[in-house]
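User: Structure please.
Assistant: Input sequence and predicted structure:
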Amino acid sequence: MSLRLGDTAPNFKAVTSKGDIDFYEFLGDSWGVLFSHPADFTPVCTTELGRTAQLQSEFDKRNVKVLAVSVDPVDKHLGWIGDINETQNTNVEFPLIADDDRTVSGLYDMIHPNASATATVRSVFVIGPDKKVKLTLTYPASTGRNFLEILRVIDSMQLTAKHSVATPADWNQGDDVIISTAIKTEDALKKFPKGVKEIKPYLRYTAQPAID
């Protein structure tokens, strides 16, 4: 059965391009992004891993650790990283999991037989410091992912985990946020000193609180 939001992310041990890891130990108290790609030495995947490497400092700022996974062995990963670094003008520092026995793919339901009996689909899992699944995304093999969108969602989740707010459609860092309906307006006026803008009794905005 596939993982759902709020489920505990399964732990695993794996061989990676950076050596052997225990997933939980690797994450520690950080957030995690675990994403799968169909195969090494393929064009869309090359751009995806390259883009992730280019955004490494953005993940670091958010205390997020990134891991990629496919069913290819580690020697292929190591050879492919050289191509990624060359063609995408970057330096891949995050681990690529060698899941040739399909252990991780099975735990995270990354192989969809109706799409491919052997290759992993483009799955994304965002995992919180509590090891709970916070986000799942699945893309078809032909469509590269938008990693700025993944960062945007992490910004929203980290913000809303600390404050009684939600983020509206197309929200970006610094935009106004929506006040939780669980908070009465009189209490919201005290809780959010930057002001409350009421559109409807159930739709109230305030300036974004600080994430930290």
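The helical segments are 23-27, 43-54, 56-61, 74-88, 103-107, 147-162, 185-191.
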